[in-house]
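Quiz preparation item.
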């Protein structure tokens, strides 16, 4: 069922590609910057998508998001806790080095190291053993039937190159070190990075030695970040760029009316949500001292019911969002539609705050990116305005995603009290939510590294352990339901919506838009003017 849903969603956004014309240059723009090129620095869809044109995992995902072999040609479970992966032979990194088992072992250690933002790509306690030059075993502490589900974005690095270029350690999201992996890339994928000026321009070139074949005709890509919505749209309409992401919701009609451009709209798997810091004994940004109001579920529910999600959909998102009751898209969980949002009710919200001991409300800071998600800052401004009506004063701190992630992630000690975040489960599975966003963690992030606020339920963690090893789909769905029900009733977070994808493109560009919002050049064809 899941594969059919995803295939249908993706097929709508796939344009037919004819015989490839002569090699062409693609010029494209995104609202945010591409900063460090280290593939383990930031677990963010845009960054991983851009690096996915250069690096590859043991697996990859097809146009319909099904899992395919990539740097591994096949794999099998030889024992309940031992997976064997057979590696593709004859593959070379872009500097000419051979791809071998040593690179997989090195990449496994590196992705689990201190500064990595992708630690959860591998389970705790895993051991990677070399069988021969092109075979590796992953030895687990317990069975894990979905082990490789997220490996399309666990990119394999060249051990020899990393050691020679002072790149054995991961570049932290809150660090600006001189680690070579931040400025250069050496993957096995369809494109190389010819030059990279962080935050300014990145130029890609087709990799003539790639082991596979590109179906498009793009041999050069010039990426330029354009943060300002009006400037980005103007660049598309004038022909300065061929592709932009996103088209602001207020400009969709104008782009579609232009004779040389159109908008590719499709469903996205990402859920936008709000989170609370429940781990701190006291919130540094709040005027409530000596206690943390977010530890009271009644306060969290008051925030939830003080937010008018329909107004956000109509006024901020111009109808291009789907309100959500869960942290996961209903496309990815069969019983997702059984959950309903807590109703918008500001009067009830005021009463809950009063019952919780805050009749006059309180002040709290809120962290928000302003160049990452569709209308992210506008959403945060709307939330602040709505919460003001129930007595809560929000001190909004909206900033570019590089600074935002550098502040709120584990590498900076989860420095946030109340925040907006977006999440696409890279495994396309509910377990990803439970292990990344809602699992109990310690102060360093061990346990659930993207549970920025530290909400914790031992019952949800116990259910997650069962979900991981349960093979019966109906039983598994029931366990997932129980976990999500606890989160819903206790208001672990405030789900907002799944935003719609809106890519603006030149009419002479043919491409595939996947529901995970990765921009992959290998499938693009541009017709010469």
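Solution:
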């Amino acid at each position: 069922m899941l594969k059919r849903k995803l295939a249908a969603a993706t097929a709508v956004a796939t344009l037919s590609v004819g015989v490839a014309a002569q090699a062409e240059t693609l010029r494209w723009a995104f609202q945010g910057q591409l900063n460090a090129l280290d593939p383990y620095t930031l677990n963010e869809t845009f960054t991983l998508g851009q690096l996915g044109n250069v690096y590859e995992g043991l697996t990859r995902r097809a146009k319909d998001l099904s899992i395919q072999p990539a740097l591994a040609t096949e794999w099998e479970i030889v024992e309940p806790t031992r997976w064997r992966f057979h590696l593709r032979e004859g593959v070379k990194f872009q500097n000419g080095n051979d791809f071998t088992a040593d690179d997989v072992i090195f990449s496994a250690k590196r992705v689990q190291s201190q500064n990595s933002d992708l630690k959860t790509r591998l389970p705790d306690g895993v051991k990677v053993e070399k069988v021969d030059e092109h075979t590796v075993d992953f030895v687990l502490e317990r069975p894990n039937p979905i082990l490789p589900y997220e490996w399309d974005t666990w990119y394999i690095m060249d051990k020899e190159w990393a050691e020679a270029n002072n790149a054995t350690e991961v570049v932290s999201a809150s660090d600006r070190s001189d680690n070579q992996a931040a400025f250069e890339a050496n993957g096995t994928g369809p494109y190389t990075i010819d030059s990279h000026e962080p935050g300014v321009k990145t130029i890609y070139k087709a990799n003539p030695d790639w082991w596979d074949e590109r179906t498009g005709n793009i041999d050069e890509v010039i990426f330029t970040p354009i943060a300002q919505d009006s400037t980005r749209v103007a660049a598309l309409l004038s022909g300065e760029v061929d592709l932009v992401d996103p088209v602001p919701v207020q400009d969709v009609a104008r782009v579609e009316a232009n004779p040389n451009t159109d908008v590719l709209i499709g469903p996205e798997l990402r859920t936008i949500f709000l989170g609370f810091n429940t781990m701190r004994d006291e919130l540094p940004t709040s005027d409530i001292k000596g206690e943390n109001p977010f530890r009271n579920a009644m306060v969290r529910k008051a925030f939830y019911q003080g937010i008018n999600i329909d107004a956000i959909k109509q006024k901020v998102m111009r109808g291009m969002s789907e309100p959500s009751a869960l942290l996961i898209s209903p496309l990815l969980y069969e019983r997702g539609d059984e959950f309903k949002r807590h109703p918008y009710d500001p009067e009830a919200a005021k009463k809950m705050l009063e019952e919780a001991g805050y009749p006059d409300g309180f002040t709290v800071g809120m962290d928000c990116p302003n160049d990452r998600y569709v209308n992210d800052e506008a959403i945060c401004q709307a939330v602040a305005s709505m919460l003001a009506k129930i007595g809560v004063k929000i001190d909004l701190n909206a900033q570019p995603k590089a600074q935002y992630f550098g502040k709120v992630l584990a590498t900076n000690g989860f420095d946030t009290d109340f925040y907006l975040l977006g999440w696409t489960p890279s495994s396309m599975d509910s377990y990803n939510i439970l292990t990344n966003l809602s699992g109990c963690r310690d102060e360093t992030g061990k346990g659930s590294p993207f549970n920025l606020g530290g909400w914790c339920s031992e019952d949800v963690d116990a259910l997650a352990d069962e979900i991981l090893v349960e093979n019966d789909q109906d039983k598994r769905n029931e366990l997932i339901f129980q976990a999500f029900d606890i989160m819903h009733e206790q208001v672990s977070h405030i789900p907002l919506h799944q935003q719609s994808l809106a890519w603006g493109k030149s009419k002479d560009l043919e491409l595939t838009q996947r529901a995970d919002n990765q921009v992959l050049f290998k499938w693009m064809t541009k017709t010469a003017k």
